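Annex B, item 7. Sequence and structure tokens for protein A, then protein B.
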Amino acid sequence: MATRVMIIISVLLFLSHPLLAADEAQSTAEDIRVEATRPNNSREGRPLPLACSWQSGKFRDPTCAGWRPANQMKLIEKGHHLLPWFTHPPREGDVPSDPVDFLLTYYDEPIHNARQLRLPLTFIASQWESGLSAEPYLSLPPNENPNVIDVDGKILPQVSPFGPLKPWREIGRKHTDNAWIRKLQEWYPDPPLVVFLSNNEHRKLVWREVENSKRYLEKYGKGRDDDAKRKVVADGWIERYRALQEGMREGLDNPNWKNNAVFVGYSAFGPEFIGRWGGWVHYSLHSQGRINPYPLMWDGGSPSYYTHDWNPSRDDTMWSPQVEFMNLVFMQERAYALNRAFWLEISVWDGYGGPQREKSYPAPRTLYRMQGQTYTPERYRGFVQFGMWLLRPRAVREYRGWVFPWDDKDSWEGGASYFMALVHAVDRVYENPILKQWWRHGELVPNRAHDHPYQAGIPAEYKDEDRWFLLDADVNAQEFPWELHWPVNVFSLALVRGKAPVRKWLVYAHSPRCDRTSVKLRVLGYKDIVVDVSVGGSFYLVDEKLNRVTLVE
């Protein structure tokens, strides 16, 4: 009898397993939908993060199939908190880089799955405006041409902030008013959010070269100061990029897509490098009263939290994304003041571009290995989590090349284990109730005992902004200011809640090179604590009333 009962129970469990899996997928999808559409200033606190990528598996190469939307849906069904992403469909008249039958397969089932789960969508593009510097626009008469016209009347293949608006709206509409996008709207008519993401790297007139522009000279003449030049260029971009985006919105047939579309640009935030060297001002669009124009120019931005393979930035030195992104904290506050719905995500990269790129640009992980270090997914997770908890962005988007293998041939070449390390960092915020509450409600603690080491040419209006959040640690240099090449053995920050004498802090710390024991960290406004710090990152809850430090598992 007992055996018979056990068999019946086993059968029932077997039959119910698909339902349990479906329930988990629906629950995860609901989390994704709610957090993706939650306002920045929600009563419930900050929106929880989502994981995503720039690599969309757009080519038929089977090695990168793991990045495709079909696999994304499988990961969501397993309980991972992904913001689904697709390559942007080709414009009307463009020749697809892949056969139509492949593209239909690429979009069809995942879009229908997304509809069933009511998931938000992302469409990744190169540069929407790049078509303006090609035919038929490049040969338009000067008064109709959106490109730069130099002082000799020559038309250059780079867009201008002083040209006519009509082509910008027109090129925008071409990206959405086409058969491919209409088909997607038909398949999924009511997405809660549609993010249109631009790589935003098309060549454009830079402010320091405006006196080479005929249009600029006709309107403003020579000799204006740099602040004025940056402002008029930024104002021009605000008007033109908004015209492009409105063209894209107008090209959408479905009112749900129109209303729920947001337009996000890579690097449309910052500058994170403010103060690193005197020449930073040449690459910035700050002007009096405005650190950057991006919240007025875009619905969102995705600054690069990169250890590049073309410069010396590393995850274990002062010249690091961790140090640079501390500059973005006050800029984030100013962005929300200009545009309270601004979608701030971060793009992350460990600098590895694959074997071919390694021949010209050795990746940081290659250089680490030459120094006797290792670069594991765990180290990557520790690095990424610091940026996450510093800014608490809407999404964490990993960069990889367009044809980058998903499967790990070994721990060196494939992308799956590194991307999943990022995904697990995001999932942990949902799964751990302590981390969830601190993400929503914690207040970042500035370290006012020291200035940020980047101090070159800081405008007077930003000199008193909090830009340094690294906790003092006994394993780091004790002499200030730090030099660019100096090692940083432990990166740590703290969030605080409550008022003295019953405050609590959440401390995050990671040690890029190796696990460390008995590290002394100074919690500002409280006292020193002694903790163990792992490569993958460690969280501690500090309770002032109980005088207790507890590891958050």
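Protein B:
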Amino acid sequence: MTLFSSILRALGPAAFVFTFFTAAAATAAPEGVAKETVCDDGKDNDGDLVYDCGDNDCKKDPACASDGQPENTPERCGDWIDNDADGYTDCEDDDCNGSTACYGSWDIEMSGGAVPDSGPAGTGATTTVPPQPTVVAEDDNFGENTNVLCSDGIDNDDDGRVDCEDIGCRLDTQVTICQPSGDFRLSLVGRIEALGYNFEDETYTTEFESLQLRVLGQMPFIQNSFFLISSRVEKTPRVTFALFQVPLGKKGHYLNINSGGGGLSLGPIQSVHKRLLVEQPFYLYNAFEQGNGAAMEFGGPLDKKSKFLYRAFAAGGSGRFAGNIGGTFFPDGNTRYTWSVGGQIWANVIGYYNRWDNPFLYTKSPMTLAVVGGVKYDQRAQERYPGWNAQTIFRYWRFHFQGEYYGKRELEFRNFQNAYNVQLGFLPWEKRLLLAADFGQYLATDFEDPPEDIQIDLRRQLQSTQWRTAAHVYLWRNVFFASAVYQNRREETAFNEGEFANSQEARLLFTYRW
């Protein structure tokens, strides 16, 4: 056993202290910077690509004030003013649904290319014109407005919005991937394991490894709401995750109900195509993130710029989750009710990183640093424990780094359990090659009061050390790629017996997503 492992076992959670210092020097804008001088002349006076009420310089100008009248004409749906003062501006307002000012690329194509005049709002003219750069909102940076930039999982212009959340991606006529027809969006991830080799058994495998189907859309009649249903197609189709979210007020707070996502780690909620090492590290979540039947979550920003976010959840279940909605069973004859409550704080120290973001690098990334901390209390079939989790995500240029630690104090049998994982991604060749590696361990101290009956959840908690490497080759943009993965793992042969075995595995996979 390594010295590091020995220290972890001896000290338990005290061995992990996440400390960081971030210093940022604020540079004042030089004197004489141009500003928008007239807010209703249809001109970009200061040359920043944003004009009139779309420019933050005009935020307090009387010409951009709400008049309380309906917002339902092409002119009023494209003037960057919340005319009816309902908290939603232009195409974000449901009153503008169907207005030609809010046509996306799909609508343009279906209508034969007739689009609203891209000149200043208020002209009302309809002509056939080539794609124009979009006008952006007051807190939106210009720069994320192509199909590639709007699908790479990166906040390219560092304004806090990623891909289709960015206003440039939603409104620029040259972006087609963010303008689906209808209110629903269907996505698919398919992955084939072309060749898998187990070094110990000397066996080869080839299989259709994953097929994930997802439907995302707005809940009817509830503005700024959404639902997500994700399923895996295997021997029998099963819903792996379902979420229904509605806004609470107009300041970004929300309530959602989901099928068991009440936890602190990002790994269990990531889609198949967002895993740098193909599979999530099982040892990091197994003893800490056991499936709930259903969960309720509240969340939102703690400050005006959404640099600090919170989420709080309560979850419950009955027996072990079997994969399908309502599919639970009671292993070992244990009918003890399971439940969990917890909370988490997310701090965007530099830039913005969202818990749904894609860690795959396709192009160079702006600097981003996010730090996450959370705690929870959990009751399971045989266990009761407080748990704590800390995560750090840093990406810059061609590098992506993320580290996660999970710990708990088991109260029934009185022991400490700790797990950690560090991942690194490096993009040596833009739009062609991404390299990745990770290392981690699950370590636990001995039970002070061992149970007489070791049931299924405890039997799976095997101490382990694992490292992996991967190379991802982008064959067609970041939509179709090949992955070569090597895994080396040292794991207990049986629960709490102290005997270990080594295993090695190499895999070649092809993933397609749309």
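Comment on protein B: The longest helix spans residues 3-11.
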